[in-house]
Amino acid sequence: MVMTDTVIEQLRAVYPDYAPYRVSVDEYIRFREQGFLAVRGLIPQHDVQMLVDHTDNILAGRESFPNVPAPSPDLTPMERLQYYLRVHMLHRVLPLHERFMLHPRTIDVLEALIGPDVLALQTMLFFKGPGQPGQGYHQDAYYIPTLPDTLCGAWLAVDRADEDNGCLWFTVGSQHEPIYPDWDGQTKNGDTVLGDIEPIANASNVDVTKNELTRVAARYAGREIKVEADPGDVVFFAGHVLHRSHGNHTAARSRRAFVGHYCNARSAVPWNHGDPYEGEFANHLHILARGTTHLPYAQPRFGTPCAANIPAMRARPVTDKPMSMMSDGSGIMLLTAHADEADHH
Ligand SMILES: O=C(O)CCC(=O)C(=O)O
Fold it and tell me: pTM to 2 decimals?
């Protein structure tokens, strides 16, 4: 959408120095060619510092997550760093997490990659302290189905993430693969309509001999890319791309990250993180971050500004004349407004 000054002002009430981010054609192409796109420095450092302070406070017992057991005061500093691996869906209970889920710089990128209408579905906060495990090959759209399938992850580095503390790795080319059903998995999802698809077992298992997506990854041998990231970098990745992370092998460095999952707001979403929902789809439980939709959506619980609560963000520019692809007279086809009433057909 074209950001008007009024909309930018409303967003700046929560994100004081927000400046819209414009995705380039080159970035758009790279996202499709590689299945992921790292946007460096997308989130300002003082914003990232809020997540650093928040997670430090959690581990020190100065803040707590509602309904999640807190670390006991008797733990050693190392035991504290290793207490949480990841916590899901905190945007439904903590304003700070809703703020990061709907960060307009993140949504600017999603609008270009999977939009224009963007629905915010899920969040995870990774602590991944020293010694904590990674996650083996998996495809996110297996866990979070969207119909049509438009899922995209946005992974914000809170600490520096590198090979030693368990950054992300992507298998380039695998974004074109179907979603493999996992008979031993948590869902019945997958592209089972394909006549010859072979189900796999143990997606996400870090043991490559057990994780049967290893045989899919083998088709792209030599094309796995390590994506190191600095605080504030956001890595966007498509729902089908095979990706994984290794364990944190450092002695003292955590690898914290804030992850959101999103889809085009015109997709139907039969998913709500395991919670029951009325009816076939759960779109009404997920937040409209940008644009508009003919489907239901939720309001942000803590009032974070986004399309759900700013009507101007849901407006689509319309012309008062029908448009057609028409020749400009030199043989070039252009999207052109009909000039005369007589042409309105
Ligand atoms: O951060 C990680 O280690 C894994 C994250 C991941 O694979 C995901 O969000 O799908």
Answer: 0.93
